[in-house]
Task: structure prediction
Amino acid sequence: DAKTTQPNSMESNEEEPVHLPCNHSTISGTDYIHWYRQLPSQGPEYVIHGLTSNVNNRMASLAIAEDRKSSTLILHRATLRDAAVYYCILKGGGYQKVTFGIGTKLQVIP
Amino acid sequence: EAGVAQSPRYKIIEKRQSVAFWCNPISGHATLYWYQQILGQGPKLLIQFQNNGVVDDSQLPKDRFSAERLKGVDSTLKIQPAKLEDSAVYLCASSLGDRVTDGYTFGSGTRLTVV
Result:
């Protein structure tokens, strides 16, 4: 019963930008959108999070729709090391359980 | 800072045997989570601790799984007896707290194979 919907897989060419979409139509007003990625044989690692405004950090950018029902993780220049499963999750307060879906498996083509 | 430490890295057991996994979270992180990740699926929360108290264990199969976090630091997850369907990666994660902005730091996981 994941609260987010993502494409199962995407491909990108190396050194090109990648836009990973996430739909979260039932998001509540206090839910933050978090993105994680999981490299092969590793645990997930934090990428970025946001509430309403677009966010940037050294790893990626997060673009959030005005109605907050969708968001897009942007990798500005994909590298081979970005090949991973990307998870979009919603995090609310008060010990609400966070549900991970199956994520988007990103393949980067040299 | 040191990451979340988990051991063992791999474990193979026969069904009906018991197994235990250990997790050492990042120093100062009050919240600790155990997740189960079956191949091809996203992580599924088994249990969440706040310091040494349980705040959510609704998805923990309590007839065979148990977990504790003594002194609010290290944690162990035990399975007794194991079933074939318990084959999965068991991930431990920690966070400063449970605020909406607190991110998780995951360990590398323990890959359990039940034969």
The CA atoms of residues 3 and 24 of chain B lie 9 Å apart. Chain B touches chain A at residues 4, 35, 40-45, 48, 50, 55-56, 58, 91, 93, 98-101, 103-109 (CB under 8 Å).
